[in-house]
Amino acid sequence: MTEHVVYVGNKPVMNYVLATLTQFNEGADEVVVKARGRAISRAVDVAEIVRNRFLPNVGVKDIKIDTEELNSERGNINVSTIEIVLAKAA
Where do the domains of the chain lie, and which CATH numbers do they carry? Predict the structure, then answer.
């Protein structure tokens, strides 16, 4: 099974909602919404909009949070990450 993932960045929230809906419409039973740093709140918005406005039969199966260490010109910085697993109800 290929993993269905939507990476959330700086685009408008509805772009990611549409990408998530497209994955479900193409037959995916699960879609993972991933984000890090300041995009985390946008990822939560995407998951909530998909669940509440478009696909009421989809729920949150799992949420994973983590910290990644990135190398930047100012040294190592820690960036928070989130993965929200959305799944169709059985």
Answer: 5-88 (3.30.110.20)
